[in-house]
Structures are given as C-alpha cells and as structure tokens.
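Appendix C reproduces, verbatim, an entry submitted by the partner laboratory led by Prof. M.T., so that reviewers can inspect both the input and the predicted structure.
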Amino acid sequence: QVQLVESGGGLVQAGGSLRLSCAASGSIFSINAMGWYRQAPGKQRDLVATITGGGRTNYADSVKGRFTISRDNAKNTVYLQMNSLKPEDTAVYYCNAALIVAGVRGAYWGQGTQVTVSS
C-alpha cells in the first residue's frame, strides 16, 4: 500500500514562513516527478510547484520568488519552503507524486494539509 503523508501546515501571519513535507512510503519501485498543489474554498485545485527526479523545478507565477520546492530522493520526501506568505496563499495543500508501483505508473495524492495565513 502506497501512502503520501504531508506535514507542516498551520496558521501563520502574513509575511511569515512555513515548511511543508511529504513522505512517500510503501512498495514503491521508483518516484518520478513530485509536486504541490493547493485548493482554496470554492476554487479548483491549482499547481503550486513541481520537481522532477533530476531536480528540475517549475512554479506557479503567484509563488515564484517566495516558495522553493526541493526533494530528498533517499527519503522519498518532497518539501515546500514557503516564505513571505500572503493571505491569498491560504488553502489546503496537497502533495502529488508520479510513482511506479508493481510495474504500473500512477499519480498519487496526499490527504492534504491546511495552511492559513492571517492578515
């Protein structure tokens, strides 16, 4: 059974920082791209940042220069360092990973972690 477990969400004032973590576990053969998405109330789930197995990154324009995605392949973990947080960053943040499990490639999601930025 494959799991993505997120941690690090919480309540922070505008201008503050948070670091999210997402660890993948289970019978994983390999992990390709990993990423973070977010969903605010009443809105669709949007991409925040992705990182390939080789470390190439991609960011939504709204977070460029403020957020940094990274990964530790030895720990099957992806991180999202969020600085200069704004109230509009408030959302549930979801981890996503492209995994090969039992020879089959699939997209897996974490359960989500709430990030709330107060003004």
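The chain is about 0% helix and 60% strand. Additional entries are available on request from the coordinating office.
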